[in-house]
Structure to design on (382 residues):
């Protein structure tokens, strides 16, 4: 595997690309190029300039709420990763107007991804194939789309993240082959002869205190009532707080959890809305039972993740990371996140990713979680 990466804080798209690739060499033509950048760089200009520069490469990326590159966790930057590796074949497909995504769109998307690789649905093998997803982080459509796509890809590991805009919640974009899109999603399907492992990490567990959504706007992810009370009042009451004390920090420290088949999935609150309602970052339903979260130590849990992906005889060549932006808010000090970046970089040749507005894990859209893909060298992990 040949992988080259770089970053720049320049707000001019062309100049940022030039700076990030200054050590790549004129003849390097990656099979696929991943591009993540802050809201300070113009998404359309980044996409078009990358396509002009790398005419033979597949290009996919998104805007971010923070960037990860090797041992550094950054803000306001553009980061690039180019990969040339004969052992992995890639396909990329973008879906527009995902607010109208239907079964036939899922069929067409998956057929396109498979056709590019020259394989059939029956050839899919969870030990050989994986899929990466990238969503407009303000689309509010991740749940339905990821469910339909995951169903069609069967047991293929699927993970990814929703684009951010530095917590402004104004405009988020995905980038695919020269264009920047909103209300869209992109999928990368890979056929890999190199071993890999998908990782899901969270440090919240069920805290045992339950509440029921009794009135909600499902399409807008707004909860009006919990246990028959205005949602913000009931949530604050459960925490022993006043509604006036609720803020992003409180929400990041005290998300709610939905438990299904013994697995816990975080449902993060995005903001306090009108009439003491609460707007969530992922799917909710009336009648859904949610629980207050109990914390585990973020750093200790992260150390366990590193143990889970470390194979003593097998070097990690590349780790692709999708980290919820609210984990950074919760951490309070960026020093903690920097320590995480340094720790994972110590066991991986390249670490690359971004802070998201939500994570995709197989058929689910979740919050306050880190999902990642580790690609190893030729030796098979045990």
């Amino acid at each position: 595997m040949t992988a080259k990466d770089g970053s720049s804080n320049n707000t001019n798209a062309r100049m940022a690309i030039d700076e990030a690739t200054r050590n790549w060499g004129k003849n390097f033509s990656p099979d696929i190029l991943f591009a993540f950048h802050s809201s300070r760089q113009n998404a359309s200009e980044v996409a078009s300039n990358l396509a002009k520069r790398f005419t033979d490469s597949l290009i996919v990326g998104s805007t971010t709420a923070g960037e990860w590159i090797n041992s550094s966790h950054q803000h306001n930057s553009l980061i690039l990763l180019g990969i040339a590796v004969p052992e992995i074949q890639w396909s990329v497909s973008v879906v527009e107007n995902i607010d109208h995504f239907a079964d036939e769109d899922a069929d067409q998307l998956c057929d396109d991804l498979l056709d590019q690789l020259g394989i059939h649905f029956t050839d899919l093998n969870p030990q050989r194939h994986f899929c990466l997803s990238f969503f407009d982080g303000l689309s509010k459509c991740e749940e339905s789309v990821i469910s339909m796509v995951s169903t069609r890809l069967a047991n293929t590991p699927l993970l990814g993240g929703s684009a951010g805009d530095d917590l402004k919640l104004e405009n988020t974009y995905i980038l695919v082959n020269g264009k920047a899109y909103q209300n869209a999603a992109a999928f990368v399907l890979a056929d890999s002869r190199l071993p890999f492992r998908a990782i899901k990490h969270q440090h919240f567990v069920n805290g045992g205190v339950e509440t029921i959504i009794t009135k909600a706007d499902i399409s807008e992810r707004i909860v009006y009532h919990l246990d028959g009370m205005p949602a913000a009042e009931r949530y604050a009451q459960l925490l022993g707080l006043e509604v006036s004390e609720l803020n992003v920090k409180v929400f990041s420290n005290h998300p709610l959890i939905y438990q299904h088949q013994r697995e816990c999935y975080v449902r993060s609150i995005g903001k306090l809305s009108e009439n003491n309602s609460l707007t969530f970052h992922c799917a909710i339903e009336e009648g859904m039972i949610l629980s207050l979260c109990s914390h585990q130590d973020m750093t200790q849990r992260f150390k366990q993740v590193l143990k889970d992906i470390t194979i003593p005889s097998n070097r990690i060549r590349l780790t692709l990371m999708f980290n919820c932006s609210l984990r950074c808010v919760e951490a309070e000090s960026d020093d903690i996140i920097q320590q995480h970046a340094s720790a994972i970089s110590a066991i991986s040749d390249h670490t690359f990713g971004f802070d998201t507005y939500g994570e995709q894990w197989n058929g689910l859209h979740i919050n306050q979680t880190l999902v990642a893909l580790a690609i190893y060298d030729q030796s098979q992990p045990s």
Notes: The first helix runs from residue 13 to 20. DSSP finds nine helices and 26 strands in the chain. Residues 2-201+298-376 form one domain. Residues 207 and 294 are 4 Å apart (CA to CA).
